[in-house]
Amino acid sequence: MTISRRQVLLTGGLGVLGAGAALLPTGSVEAKSASRLSDKEMPRPFQAEFRQAPFLRPSSTGIDPVDGAPVNYYQVTEQAANAQILPRLTTPILGYNGMFPGPTISLDQGTKAVLRVRNKLPAQHALDGHTLSTSTHLHGSASLPQYDGYASDITLPGFHKDYHYPNFQPARTLWYHDHGVHFTALNAYSGLVAQYHMHDPIERKLLPQGDFDVALTINDVMFAADGALGYDDNTHSGLWGDVILVNGKPWPVMKVQKRVYRFRILNCSISRSLRPTLSTGDPLVVVSTDGGLMPAAQSVASYRHGGAERYEVLIDFRKYKTGQRIELRNLSNRNNVDYDFTNKIMAFDVTDDAVDTSDPTWNRIPTTLAGSEAMSLTAGQSVKTRKFKVKRNDTTNLWTINDDSWQDVIASGYKKVVADPALNSVEIWEIENSSGGWFHPVHIHLVDFQVISRNGQAPFAHERGPKDVVYVGEGETVRLLMKFTPNKGVYMMHCHNLPHEDHDMMAQFRVGLKDSDPDENDPMTAAKAEWDDDND
To answer: Mind spelling out the 3-state secondary structure of 95-121?
Structure first.
């Protein structure tokens, strides 16, 4: 397998990216650069100031007449904009409210949300000319199928869709991103990603809040000479950029007090996996996974972080000296392509600012956290074991799950499923990656699951909490335990290496229904997008 030096797509036009490199199944590959920026315009680590995305305020609030629950109403507009990612050049993006990352939504468990997503994008993507239709997925939410961002349930430019989110699950870091069929990778890479935080009383008591609860949205990109984003998915195998962004800034520096901080780390790279570690050798304390708090905190020197996974970690800055710089580094993993500075993520500079010691979380590193339904399941409850293989079809060059792809789903009239669990049933799903040379972060919609084994051994320490994405590495087989609740209907499972998803490693399963049953939550018919009356 090789990184192609073919003509690739650049947002600013067509061109060729530099520094081809061989991608071998034995390990990561190093190269000098991928971007076409001049040396003067190429960003360098630790020159940019850290910033967080702004929080999105509700446009209004109300009460659900059905159950009396509070409801927050939000609105975001998908639009083309220019971002100041580089020091001097501007970068065209697609963003929620014209920002990358988009605005963060934060609310309490039990407060429902209705998010109106207005598609004000251009008719076509400037990079390859595909129609800029979108589908918004709140990743980590047990939403009804018609509000889950089903890939083929698209919203065209000029239309909007209202997404209803129940927010009954335990506190967790979610994120919303585009999930439009066959173009998720390009749309998300162009900027349609944002975090979404759900709080509950247990999490608020245990973990830092406010200024000390910090969202880190990490991704890698490459640039054209004019500052536009470059794109090369290497024949649909993956994109590895040479610039690491944190909240839309290259390798930023954050000032920190001498206290404990909580970081919500989302890897929204469309292909690259990370292996975060601290330059001091001190531990990262993992306290929460995709589905919320772990039963017990796990201290790790580094951990493997695939695309779409969320890990909340505590870093204790109390013992460091004023003025000391601590780097969050990236050790990388097999089958990434690494460049001069992709071994760095961001840095922290310690200040002597006064610490509020009346906040009980300022010096707390909790060990016991919280149980959850997913982590309380036992293998003895399982009524069925299903086996899946993730691989590439040598004939069609498509990525598949058990030889099934989204093309098969479309051809079946959205009826074909790879599994049909009963509502509230418990199953074991075994996912095998014997395709060679590739890792696959596999996302299963609707459910939180428990990783019960990896190659017959215990799961890694950092993944011993409720998950919705599992990193299936080269030659690995994972076993997952999950309960299919609370909704009936069809949901997707797919690889979150997004070029793999788009070509065409995505299938669906059906919960609690037979093929012939009427489906009131059919995502293709139950809640269609509507013409936006506010079109100019």
So the answer is: EECCECCCCEEEEECCCEEEEEEEECC
